[in-house]
Amino acid sequence: MVDIIKNSIGACINLCRPYERPALSKGFLLPEAPARLPSFHTCVGANEERLTPKWYKEHGIELVLGSRVKSVDVRRKTLLTGSGETISYKVLIIATGARALKLEEFGVKGSDSENVCYLRDLADANRLVNLMESCSGGNAIVIGGGYIGMECAASLVINRMSVTMVFPEEHCMARLFTPKIASFYEEFYKSKGVKFVKGTILSSFDIDSNGKVTAVNLRDGSSLPADTVVVGIGIRPNTSLFEGQLTLEKGGIKVNGKMQSSNSSVYAVGDVATFPVKVFGESRRLEHVDSARKSARHAVGAIMEGNQAGEFDYLPFFYSRVFTLSWQFYGDNAGDVVHFGDFSGGTFGAYWVRNGHLVGSFLEGGTKEEYEAIAKATRLKPAVEDLAELERQGLGFAV
Ligand code: NAD
Predict the structure, then answer these.
(1) CATH number for the 324-398 domain, one of 3.30.390.30, 3.40.50.2300, 3.30.428.10, 3.40.50.300?
(2) Whose CA is nearest to atom 23 of ligand 1?
(3) Where are the transmembrane segments (predicted)?
């Protein structure tokens, strides 16, 4: 999405009306009482005003839908749309997000087969729902052990499919989980019938004469029969409109603490923005809805307040809900790790300590107050001298 603010009237240029994406890999996929449109407008998850078409109208925001921006000239402050219209702006907010990484980038053909699904937008989610309905009881292969892989595997099981997850790492959610945390979730998934094939990746698909994938062939030489394949192997930020015009860093558009890019009239927010993150001590791109919402809010504040605006001080936050489980993470998962709590199915978690200070916390099965407590403790970065004592105190250290 590209937002423009022209002559103090806002315009939002997009292919379709903005909506919340987090539901797509969670409630949207449930066979019973699914969370689907029209009940998930933008901001539903943040318990803020629901951004219905009426809302945009009432707030003087023109929604320009079905329109793709073909090129941008940041020096002239103009956008060129697919229909040949030139739009000029005073301030531009880039919220183009990211796209799902395709298997073709790893030399595997078959992404366009009718039973291979990615999950990035509403059309993908609708396709997956249809596939689950038509293949109920069949074999689903999930490629990737990250957020999409874990959340979709849970939904596929709930939709009565037989699920196998394939990923190259030694354990799931390798970007965030410790082996001990991952082991808990993997055992839970196994108890629901999910099989794990770890330490390998797929090398090819067997595709029948109707263009349907019938098996997934792995690099280790094995082959898995497949009725449905779900691929969640990461994302790539959509920066191409701005390459050569704005400074890029770590795959995203580099911005300062006001979310302002190397061109002072252009701001970037969400998955596409690489911004300074205090707890990391460096700039990073964060892929999460909470960061997207808060960075957008901060950019708008900075545009309105000009030089008075403060720096974005964001504490990284991630969460997930699968089956009856639910976890939250705050801060950075770097340094020494200390686990605590009941890993046999109760409330448990972990702290990360770097340079003598708490920098990150993870909690599964917490209450609202407990999640708030670990968030607050992580933000305060208290000194931790004795890791054994931290382990002994466990959640009590934060609450
Ligand atoms: P991810 O980065 O979380 O996980 C990618 C996974 O794919 C990793 O396990 C990786 O090792 C694996 N992988 C990479 N190449 C592979 C290959 N060739 N074969 C097999 N496995 C391979 O990305 P994702 O799960 O695709 O999620 C996409 C985006 O959606 C992310 O930005 C994520 O943050 C977001 N998302 C977040 C949530 C949440 O926060 N709860 C939920 C869904 C999606």
Answers:
(1) 3.30.390.30
(2) 234
(3) none
